[in-house]
């Protein structure tokens, strides 16, 4: 009896291994799948070799094609490259889902909540609700631009005070200004640069983005590792980060609860709390409750701060590494704006070189090279391949922004590519830093205004030089969910005249 049981168990194990290694019919080509781990060993070697997930994916795509199929642990993943195919994916309803792995649920108390990693009716409802109320508090209007100007003025004061002490740490210099631009509309207040609690949370935010990659990381691919090696798998660090973020945001929400007005909301949190009260006894209570609000806060806090702040810091890296462009932009500002007033959003159309520089940084050093992961909501065909329902789909923006047939010399930093023969700024359809379709970045209008005004203010008020003590900054950032700049310091001095 006992040997028979062992034999049966062995047979079952072998059958499972065979089943786990078989690809679905007509699945996109890719490396061979191994039982339990899929392509993880090969992917890990490539990521270690190149240092970045998107470069590991590029290596595989060069061998297997622009629709690449892999399996990491239990996750089936398809990586789509080239402008034509990516446009199809981003504008096709079947690809508009979000993954449902361990990481995407643990951040939301085991459920699917918020606007960043959800789909379907709940996602549509919360997105519409958030946009409608954010607009009523200034989002996309003159009020928002005025708030960014105020933050730009505070940023200049902060950087000036920092510069008096020596070289300024620029890798996180924009963090507070960027989060304040959103937080005024979202929570009705701004943070002070000396707020130590915020400083700690912003560092926690940076840690979170470096801990997890675009696919959800090893905890989505091999979730059982959290029981075997909680520290090595990153599970312990992830939970520490999440508890700090939950606590910070819960405090903000509780402050609103204790002072909630009886009539008109002051900000988005007020509006959501009022919606919770209205729906307590209705079927909509599942969509509007305190857990949903906390995860919405988490989504907007993380997405609204990290990418814009990192892009601004990266722009300064490219300015000091390309000093001719630093000189060009400052001369253009002096010519158009003058020295008697600060820049404003109306100046933007008269600053084509500034626009070209912004576009080229976002093209050549895309902060989120694989975007936010998608999920197929039903079986779908792409480029002749069948992609089953619930497959994770990664959109390789990096491939579009470095497509050689279109850009000719994509590895070269050349803002002139966005200027025509008359020096007029010319947008390019192959540059899609905010995505396309229904999943296009929710905060695009805020991000575009912030990138322009914060950079324009810094260039208007400061001369910028490499610190002799610290040396030139490294343009190759830290890998993670986004690419974040490594610590770097610059010498800022107030511009005369």
UniProtKB/TrEMBL annotation:
Ranges annotated as spanning the membrane: none
Keyword Nuclease in annotation: no
Cofactor(s) in the UniProt record: heme
An example Gene Ontology CC term for this record: cytoplasm
Alphabetical list of InterPro entries matching this protein: Cyt_P450 (IPR001128), Cyt_P450_CS (IPR017972), Cyt_P450_E_grp-I (IPR002401), Cyt_P450_sf (IPR036396), Cytochrome_P450_fam2 (IPR050182)
Keyword Metal-binding included in the entry's annotation: yes
Domain of life, per lineage: Eukaryota
Cleaved signal peptide residues: 1-24
Keywords (A to Z) from UniProt: Heme, Iron, Metal-binding, Monooxygenase, Oxidoreductase, Signal
PROSITE patterns reported for this sequence: CYTOCHROME_P450
GO aspect biological process, one term: xenobiotic metabolic process
MF annotations from Gene Ontology: heme binding; iron ion binding; oxidoreductase activity, acting on paired donors, with incorporation or reduction of molecular oxygen, reduced flavin or flavoprotein as one donor, and incorporation of one atom of oxygen; steroid hydroxylase activity
Amino acids binding heme: 441
Record family assignment: Belongs to the cytochrome P450 family.
Name this polypeptide is given: Methyl farnesoate epoxidase
Organism this protein belongs to: Neodiprion lecontei (Redheaded pine sawfly)
């Amino acid at each position: 009896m006992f040997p028979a049981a062992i034999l049966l168990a062995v047979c079952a194990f072998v059958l499972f291994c065979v089943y786990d290694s078989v690809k679905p019919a007509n699945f996109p080509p890719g490396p061979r799948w191994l039982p339990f781990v899929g392509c993880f060993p090969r992917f890990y070697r490539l990521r270690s070799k190149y240092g970045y997930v998107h470069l590991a994916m590029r290596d595989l795509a060069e061998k297997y094609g622009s629709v690449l199929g892999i399996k990491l642990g239990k996750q089936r993943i398809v990586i789509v490259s080239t402008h034509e195919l990516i446009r199809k994916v981003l504008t096709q309803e079947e690809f508009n889902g979000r993954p449902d792995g361990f990481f995407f649920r643990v951040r939301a108390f085991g459920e699917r909540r918020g606007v960043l990693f959800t789909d379907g009716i709940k996602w549509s409802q919360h997105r519409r609700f958030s946009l409608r109320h954010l607009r009523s508090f200034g989002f996309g209007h003159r009020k928002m631009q005025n708030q960014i100007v105020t933050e730009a003025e505070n940023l200049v004061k902060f950087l000036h005070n920092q510069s008096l002490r020596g070289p300024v740490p620029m890798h996180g210099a924009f963090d507070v200004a960027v989060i304040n631009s959103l937080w005024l509309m979202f929570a009705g207040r701004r943070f002070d640069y000396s707020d130590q609690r915020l400083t700690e949370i912003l560092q926690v935010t940076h840690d979170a983005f470096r801990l997890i990659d675009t696919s959800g990381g090893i905890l989505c691919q091999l979730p059982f590792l959290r029981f075997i090696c909680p520290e090595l798998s990153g599970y312990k660090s992830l939970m520490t980060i999440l508890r700090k973020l939950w606590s910070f945001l819960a405090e903000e929400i509780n402050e609103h609860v204790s002072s909630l007005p009886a009539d008109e909301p002051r900000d988005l949190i007020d509006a959501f709390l009022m919606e919770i009260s209205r729906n307590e006894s209705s079927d909509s209570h599942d969509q509007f409750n305190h857990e949903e609000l906390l995860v919405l806060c988490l989504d907007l806090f993380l997405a609204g701060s990290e990418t814009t702040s990192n892009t601004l810091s990266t722009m300064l890296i490219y300015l000091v590494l390309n000093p001719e462009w630093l000189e060009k932009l400052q001369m253009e500002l002096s010519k158009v704006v003058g020295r008697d007033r600060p820049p404003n959003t109306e100046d933007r159309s008269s600053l084509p070189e500034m626009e070209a520089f912004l576009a080229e940084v976002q093209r050549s050093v895309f902060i989120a090279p694989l975007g936010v992961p998608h999920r197929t909501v039903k079986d779908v065909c792409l480029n002749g391949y069948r992609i089953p329902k619930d497959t994770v789909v990664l959109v390789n923006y990096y491939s579009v922004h470095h497509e050689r047939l279109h850009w000719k010399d994509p590895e070269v930093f050349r803002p002139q590519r966005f200027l025509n023969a008359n020096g007029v700024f010319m947008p390019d359809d192959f540059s899609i830093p905010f995505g396309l379709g229904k999943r296009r970045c929710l905060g695009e209008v805020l991000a575009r205004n912030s990138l322009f005004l914060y950079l324009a203010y810094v260039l208007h008020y400061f001369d910028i030089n490499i610190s002799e003590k610290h040396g030139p900054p490294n343009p190759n950032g830290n890998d993670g969910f986004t690419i974040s700049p490594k610590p770097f310091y610059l010498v800022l001095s107030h511009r005369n005249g």
